[in-house]
Write a structure and sequence with these properties.
3 strands, 126 residues, single chain, 3-stranded antiparallel sheet, 4 helices, globular, mainly alpha
Length: 126
């Protein structure tokens, strides 16, 4: 289960990261690039998603244990990022990663899903 979900998350994160660079999918709204007109993005944000996606894919291909571990790690990281987003709702995170309230709420959902997958899926597959 963790391997399959790791592959899914990896593909989605890679896709979202790449789409963040595609004109038309990313548009300029009030001077800020926005993915699908909702989520603030910038180069750093897109690269974080591409790297996250690559790590998810690598972990999923390495086995269920590695996939679970990276879901746990990313769950904690995305939870921290969500907290930072609530603390600075309209400014860049860590001074470089674009942020807005929809991004913050998405990070909450992603963190919860990752932590659930990381801790609730079986340790080994049969």
């Amino acid at each position: 289960m963790a391997k399959t979900l790791g592959m899914l998350f990896g593909i989605v994160f890679l896709g979202v990261g790449i789409l963040g660079f595609v004109p038309g999918v990313t548009s300029d709204v009030n001077g800020m690039p926005m993915l699908l007109g909702i989520f603030h993005v910038n180069t750093a944000h897109n690269l974080v998603h591409i790297v996250s996606g690559a790590i998810f894919l690598f972990a999923a291909m390495s086995g269920a244990g590695a996939a679970r571990l990276w879901f746990q790690i990313f769950g904690v990281i995305y939870a921290i990022v969500a907290v930072l987003g609530f603390m600075n709702p309209a400014g860049p995170l860590l001074g470089m990663i674009s942020n807005n309230p929809p991004v913050t709420y998405l990070h909450v959902v992603l963190a919860a899903a990752m932590l659930l997958i990381g801790f609730a899926t079986p340790k080994q597959t049969a």
